[in-house]
Every structure is written in C-alpha cells, then in structure tokens.
Amino acid sequence: MYGSYWFLEIMNGIVSWWQFLFWSFIILEAIARWKLFAKCGTESYKALIPFYSSYTAFELFWGDGKLFLLSLVPVVGIGVTYIMLYKMAKSFGKNDSFLIGMLFLPGIFSIIMAFDDSTYIGVQK
For residues 25 and 103, is the Cβ–Cβ distance under 8 A? Predict the structure, then answer.
C-alpha cells in the first residue's frame, strides 16, 4: 500500500517539520535581537554579526563589552551569561517574575521583550 519505505517517509516528514520549526525560531530570534538593538539606540546590523553581537550586548546591558570574553570560559560562562540576562531584563525595566522566565527560557522572553512596548533605560548597576 505505502511501499517498503513507509516508515522512512513518515520519519522524513517529522524531521522536516522539526527543521522548519527550528529554523523559524532561529530567524525569529535574529529579528528579536535586531529589534532589541534598535530599541537601545545602536545600529541594528550589529545583531547579525556573531561575536560582535555578543560584544555589543555586553556593552549595552553590562556596560563593558570586554566582559563578553568571560562568557567563553567553560564554567564561568554560564554564570556570566545569566548575569547578563539579568542586566538585560533590568535595563528594560522588567520585574523579577519576567527575570525568572528570562533565565529559564531566554529565547522566548527576549522575543517577548523585543516586541513589547518597553523602553531601554540604560545600564543598571
């Protein structure tokens, strides 16, 4: 009825669907980072350049872009990245419940922050 490769055809369809969702989310995150940089008043094209994007994010939300190099250290990088997410949420005036969501689901909450009506306050100490 379906041929001898029906299982492979079904699995190919499932994998294709997940790939579509994955790449859609990646593109949506790139658009969100573009909008976040625009909200901060910096050039938006910086969001598309891989390491320069991280440097610029640390500069906007932490105050010193060179600290981005600490995120490349294996164990220290996790803590530094979470602190940067905290500072990013605070620099847009978000409350602690939004911060908890930002720590557990950073991709989704950065998309929410990019498309809501919050404004960039500046680097928070």
Answer: no
CB 71 within 8 A of CB 45: no
**pLDDT of res. 68:** 87
pLDDT one-digit tens code per residue, 36-92: 999 999 999 999 998 999 999 999 988 888 888 998 898 999 999 899 899 999 999
Query: In this structure, what are the phi and psi dihedrals at residue 25, rounded to the nearest 5 degrees?
Result: -70, -40
Amino acid 111: pLDDT: 93
Domain spans, the chain: 6-115
Q: What residues have CB less than 8 Å from 103, skipping those under 6 apart?
A: 82, 85, 86
Alpha-carbon distance 35 to 119, whole Å? 11
Who's near 65: CB < 8 A, 6+ residues apart?
55, 56, 58, 59
The closest of 100, 99, 91 to 119, measured between CA atoms, is 91
CA 77, CA 107: separation in Å to the nearest integer?
17
